[in-house]
Specification:
402 residues, alpha/beta, 6-stranded parallel beta sheet, 3-stranded antiparallel beta sheet, 17 helices, 37% helix
């Protein structure tokens, strides 16, 4: 529905109305915008998304998170708590392919903007709804941040050392997973619309998105009676796969497949270890995991990281250092694929952020601009898209609607 000259990308003919705050909804919008969709980011007047001030930044300076999560988005303001604002949204909905929100379930219904109303305005609309517990069930109305979804979805119970309380992953993984599933669901719904012309609701819950990642933990419990526990840097029974100490740092080595383990043993100068009954099979290595890890650590500890990695590369054994951002910036693989990208920004000279993934050979996504100032695209959207007059815009602004 967008002007074909807006930008290229596989989703360049689609328009998204993004409503919501913080991360789960906005990250879904970022994924769609990265691939070319015209994302109109709708925020409350004079306030905006809290992400504008979240994240680590220098005192008094703008957020360093906002340029990433709001990249490629057209920022407009609109107060949905007022009747006039709700009427404007209904007009926008008639020109949109997707409406994306991550408010607590029932909020849109309270505003008179439930699916029963929106589908009448635009039968082809795809309504993407991200929430803590989904749009149904006894917990639907509860507040549900990503951390709660990670806990109830089973991730926190499996994260950290076994003798300590559950740890968190260092990023907002629950929100990001829910956003990713929401994006996936939106594209599934789009394919259905291509066949039928019908829109639908995409219901992405944080706890279910985390639950979807839990591999075989559910059947392990229901069939074998095994409750998987926290295990630190290892997966019990999967060996060798661990972080091993070196003379000047640490490396992660994954050699838990028979042929790879045999190559690891040869690289360590002990090829006979691969035929030792304690380690010759996947099951045996799992039973003697601690002993095997100690044997490998004895070898790595006497060598530097570079030497260990060179030996692993020569033997085709998966291995790598544990990177921070400084390591990524210095790595030739990241440089060759432009995995980190410099993005011009008026407040942050030298701003870099992660690039657009995955990579498409014919219609790649792109970063066109970082997060925009609050209401920066009001005139373009309200006058250019909806055809509002200057007088009407002035009235809406005077009344605090935009």
């Amino acid at each position: 529905m967008t002007d074909s000259t807006f930008k290229t990308g596989p989703l360049g003919d689609l328009r998204v109305l993004e409503m919501g705050t913080l991360l789960a909804g906005p990250f879904c919008g970022q994924l769609l915008g990265d691939m070319g969709a015209e994302v109109i980011k709708i925020e409350p007047p004079n306030q905006g998304d809290p992400m504008r001030v979240w994240g680590r930044q220098k005192q008094g300076e703008p957020s360093l998170w906002w340029p990433v999560v709001a990249r490629n988005k057209k920022a407009i303001t609109l107060d949905l708590r007022q009747t006039e604002g709700q009427e404007v949204l209904r007009e926008l909905v008639t020109k949109a392919d997707f409406l994306l929100e991550n408010f607590r379930p029932g909020t849109f219904e309270k505003w008179g903007l439930g699916w029963d109303v929106l589908r009448l305005e635009n039968p082809g609309l795809i309504f993407i709804r991200v929430s803590g517990f989904g749009q149904s069930g006894p917990y639907a109305g509860r507040a549900g941040f990503g951390a709660i979804g990670e806990a109830m979805g089973g991730l926190r119970a499996l994260t950290g050392e076994p003798d300590r309380p559950p740890a968190r992953v260092g990023i907002s993984i629950g929100d990001s997973l829910a956003a990713t599933f929401a994006c996936l669901g939106a594209l599934m719904a789009l394919n259905h619309r291509h066949r039928t012309g019908e829109g639908q609701v995409v219901d992405s819950a944080i706890y279910e998105s985390v639950l979807a990642m839990l591999e075989s933990t559910v059947p392990e419990f229901t069939v074998a009676g095994v409750q998987r526990q926290r295990s630190g840097a290892i997966l019990p029974g999967i060996a060798p796969s661990n972080v091993y100490p070196c003379a000047d740092g640490e490396v992660l080595i994954g050699a838990n497949q028979d042929a790879i383990f045999r190559r690891l043993c040869a690289a360590m100068g002990v090829p006979e270890l691969a035929d030792d009954p304690r380690y010759a099979t996947h099951e045996a290595r799992g039973r003697h995991q601690a002993m095997l890890d100690a044997r490998i650590a004895e070898w790595t500890r006497s060598r530097g990281v570079a030497a260990v990695l060179a030996a692993m590369e020569a033997a085709a054994v998966p291995a790598g250092r544990i990177y921070g951002v400084a390591d990524m910036l210095a790595d030739p693989q990241f440089a060759a694929r432009a995995s980190l990208e410099a993005v011009p920004h008026p407040d942050f000279p030298g701003l870099m952020m992660q690039s657009v993934f995955p990579r498409l050979s014919e219609t790649p996504g792109a970063i066109h601009w970082p997060g925009a100032p609050l209401g920066a695209f009001n005139d373009e959207v309200y006058r250019g898209l909806l055809g509002f007059s200057a007088a009407k815009l002035a009235t809406l602004k005077r009344d605090g609607i935009i």
